[in-house]
Amino acid sequence: MKSVALPLIALLAFASYTVSVMLQAEQSLIDFGISLMSRPDTAQVVIDLYLLATLAGIWMYQDARKRGWSALAVVPYLLLTAVFVSIGPLLYLVVRGLQERKRSVEATQRI
């Protein structure tokens, strides 16, 4: 459970905060993104964030393929990453950790 606890806590906290902010927002997510990209200082942060999101997406894809998952299995995580950045990789880590735990329990039961 150790490998799931930290990403699960971060996922629940950040997703809850994101929902809260979106419910209170006075503008759409797209309008907010456009306003961020209108100034060089905030655009630099957004570009940096999406570069990191791209690296996370590449890692998720490669990790999933190493684990025998189909490429399509990663698509939901990539879509979440494209929109909410951190939520996609955090959810991927939680699901991956739960699957590892399940495999470990099944392997122990076979012995």
TrEMBL record:
Tree of life domain: Bacteria
Keywords per UniProt: Membrane, Transmembrane, Transmembrane helix
Transmembrane segments: 44-61, 73-95
Record Pfam families: DUF2834
Protein name in the entry: DUF2834 domain-containing protein
Species whose genome carries this gene: Pseudomonas azerbaijanoccidentalis
